[in-house]
Design brief:
- The protein has 228 residues and is an alpha+beta fold.
- It has a domain at 93-226.
- The protein has helices at residues 23-26, 45-80, 166-175, and strands at residues 93-94, 97-109, 115-119, 124-125, 134-137, 146-149, 153-159, 184-185, 191-196, 202-211, 216-226.
- The protein has a 6-stranded antiparallel beta sheet, with helices on one face. The chain has a 5-stranded antiparallel beta sheet with strand order 4-3-5-6-8, with no helix packed on it.
């Protein structure tokens, strides 16, 4: 009798230690979400940076204007406290002449039809006739007194400007001198240049400052000394 063996369902064949896996098991999908549901990032840093830049620029402009205002105020204060320049000393030279005296007052007081002599080298009113540089003649009856050159004067001229300097007087005496016997009326504002014959010579500017009653007059004289 033939014997047939049935297939053994309990086979002892070893199992595959690395069974195959499905793709979804190897790479599982993570949680999903809709794109529109993601929170949006805030974009505030850009406007804030612009605002800070404008604020810094404003502060810089204000500081610049404040500094400039302070500089202007300092300059104004300095200009108000500038010490004025000192006047020129009496010994200042003027084209070969040196100032010997300035704005020296002289006053004449004589009666009607009287004479007074003036020496401009000192200066002195009522000097001796022989050394006098100007002769003052008082008139009566309302006539103006007269000034003529005295024996001590080397030359003279009637000028228009009381600001005339030594060089201007020298030029006036050379170009428009007072001639022999000529006289100048004594009136307020009259200006004379007189060159004395002393050694060293004096160039004197004489201005009539006031004319009072008969025989009264005020003068002032400035003198430059030649070669001093």
């Amino acid at each position: 009798m033939s014997v047939f063996r049935a297939a053994n369902t309990n086979s002892t064949r070893p199992r595959d230690p690395y069974p195959p896996h499905r793709p979804e098991e190897l790479f599982p999908d993570g949680p999903t979400e809709r794109i529109n549901d993601r929170p949006r990032r805030r974009r505030w840093p850009v406007p804030l940076a612009v605002l800070l830049a404008l604020l810094a620029l404003t502060v810089a402009v204000v500081a610049l204007l404040t500094a400039r205002r302070a500089i202007d105020l300092a300059r104004g204060a300095a200009s108000r406290h500038v010490v004025p320049a000192a006047p020129a000393p009496v010994a200042t030279r003027d084209r070969g002449y040196a100032v010997s005296y300035a704005q020296e007052p002289l006053r004449v007081q004589v009666g009607c039809s009287a004479v007074m002599y003036l020496d401009l080298d000192e200066p002195r009113a009522n000097s001796a006739e022989q050394v006098s540089d100007l002769r003052y003649d008082s008139r009566c009856g309302g006539d103006a007194p007269r000034l003529t050159l005295g024996p001590g004067a080397a030359g003279g001229s009637h000028v228009e400007n009381s600001d005339t300097d030594a060089a201007g007087c020298e030029r006036a005496i050379r170009t428009s001198p007072i001639g022999p016997g000529a006289a100048v009326e004594v009136r307020e504002g009259v200006v004379l240049c007189v060159l004395t014959a002393a050694t060293p010579a004096e160039m004197v500017l004489v201005e009539i400052t006031e004319v009072g009653r008969t025989g009264t007059a005020g003068m002032r004289a400035t003198s430059w000394r030649s070669g001093g």
